[in-house]
Amino acid sequence: MERTLIADTTQKIDETVKISGWVKTRRDHGKIIFIDLRDRSGVLQCVITPETNNYDEFKKIRPQWVLSFTGKVKTRPEKLINQEMVTGKVEMDVQDFEILSEAQESPIDISAGEMNLHIETLLDYRNLSIRNEKVGAIFKVYDEVLKSYADYMRSQNFLEIKTPKLLSACTEGGAEFFKVKYFEREVYLAQSPQFYKQAGVGAFERVFEVGSVFRAEPHVTSRHVNEYIGLDAEMGFITGPENVMDALEETMKHILKNVREKCQDELKIYGADVEIPEKFPRIKFSEALEILKKKIGKVMEGNDIDPEGERLICEWAKKEKGSDFVFLTNYPWMIRPMYVMPDPENPKETFGFDLLYRGVEIASGGQRIHDYDQLVENMKKKNLNPDDFKNYLEIFRYGMPPHGGWGLGSERIVQKILGLKNIKEAILFPRDVKRLTP
Ligand code: ATP
Ligand code: MG
Question: Of the candidates 32, 89, 304, 412, which lies 20 to 30 Å from 287 by C-alpha distance?
Answer without folding.
Answer: 412
